Amino acid sequence: MTVLILEAIIARAKANELTALANLNNYLSNPAGIGEHPDIVAEVDKLVKDVAEAREQIKTVNDLINESNNQNNKRNKLWKY
Fold it and tell me: Is the pTM of this model over 0.85?
């Protein structure tokens, strides 16, 4: 069950990353077509932060999984005779 929760967190972060990248691509390729956001620099800044946050979240979850696997491997070695 824990694996499913962590996979869901990674999937959500990946979706957030892809959404931000798609919007960022739209702003950078056609900034004049975005009428409801007059401050394009601020919006692009926010999207870059969204991408960074999503990537950091994915990295953190993967690091936690690796740490857990390493701890389990160490425990298993202790119990082997």
Answer: no
